[in-house]
Amino acid sequence: MNLRLRFAISFILIALVSIVAVVAFARVNVAREVNTYMFRGGMVGVNVLVSNLEVYYQSNGSWEGVSAQLDTARTNGGHMAGMLGKEGQGAMQQDMLLADMNYEILYDTRRARMGEALSVSEKAGAIVLLGSDSQPVGYLFISGGMQFQPGADRELVDKLNQAAINAGLIAGGLSLLVAGLLGYLILRPVQRLTAAANRIASGDLAERVPVNGNDEMAVLGKAFNTMAQSLETAQINRKAMTADIAHELRTPLAIQRAILEAITDGIYPLDLQQIQLVTQQNQSLTRLVDDLRILALADAGELRLDIDTVDAKGLLSRLVAEFEPTVSERSIQLAIPGVDMNGQWLVRADAFRLGQVIKNLLSNACRYSPDGGAVISQLSREGNWILLSISDSGSGIPAGEEESIFERFFRSDQSRSREDGGTGLGLAIARQLARAHGGDLTAINKPEGGAQFILRLPAA
Ligand code: ADP
Known about the structure:
Strand order of the largest sheet: 6-8-9-11-10
CATH architecture of the domain at 308-458: 2-Layer Sandwich
Strand content: 5-15%
CATH superfamily of the domain at 308-458: Histidine kinase-like ATPase, C-terminal domain
Order of helices and strands: HHHEEHEEHHHEHEEHEEHHEE
Bound molecules: adenosine-5'-diphosphate
Shape: elongated
Number of strands: 11
Helix content: 40-55%
């Protein structure tokens, strides 16, 4: 059964249950109200008096004392005024006769016929007062009250019942219309989503749905659009990545081929120098493939980290010491100032991968610092995090590229980085690794110049 039909049926069922309940209650109450109105004094406003008189008789077992009570009620509206009921306050202005079950008058508002019997016509028009066993215990005659013959209520009750059924049918018809309309309105956004999802499935990733308001459908629409956006971005990235990989592979392959062809054609001699040139290109290809493999593993969530408690301070000092000889001839100063060497700088990390990230940051910092510059590494604690920052004295990251430098194959200066052997994957991998540790890697430009990379790691 489709959703629209289900909605419509639910609405109609709810409407039908309400309508049937209303009609049924109306029918039951109509019969009772008509009876009270016609035969129990309702029309002349003494229905409360009638039931109070009955209660009076049922609790006293006789009519004794009733006339005194009625007098009090009539003259001073004392506590027995309640006997007349709200609607009955005016009823005592009418002439009234109360007779016992033998039609002998017990109470007469005019005080003229006490002890007499009700006349035949009065008997016919009197309201029968019932005892607890529903047997007549007395009669109340209101002069001027309209008189109905038994059974006269039938026709009116039937008409009122018919009116209730007609109202029910009209309401049922209207609810059917409303159910159809509501079903259409509620499901229209779902249909739009379905159509958009189908278009996305067939490859149109630019497809979006209009989002209005803040209701659940709007939230679903927004989630759908976000999903479509990520799919589109992923597709763009994948295409760019494939193009970038092809591009990166082409250069070393072309160089290798040129050298090999030149040797084959006898242009270059087959000597160690040529072989070293080919080996260099082979190494950069190997590095690229290794980097790509790490990224692919991280993307697939399959990068296995051997997490342990690592002394970040010890690791940092060791790596800085390893770097020193490589930059000494450029007079770059490598320093770890202000770090409390006796303090505990323990992090939860894979020592090998963390080392890889730090090496990458140190090598970038040295590469972008001028000769005689300084590369400063620092450790600090922020709540449950250990922050490892590496800043340099280079020209900093070009404005607006603080995030882009973490993208794959991003290079601010294309030619220079490639000559340096950079693949443009170093920072992308470093950030992936930081995030795989539950931390992060960000970059800023220091106000005094130079870039600062901050690696955030969970403290042990
Ligand atoms: P590469 O291997 O080409 O160096 P990276 O991912 O390590 O690639 O860096 C990407 C880009 O980020 C670099 O091309 C460079 O433009 C920029 N970058 C990285 N480190 C620094 C730094 N310390 N100072 C300024 N720019 C930097």
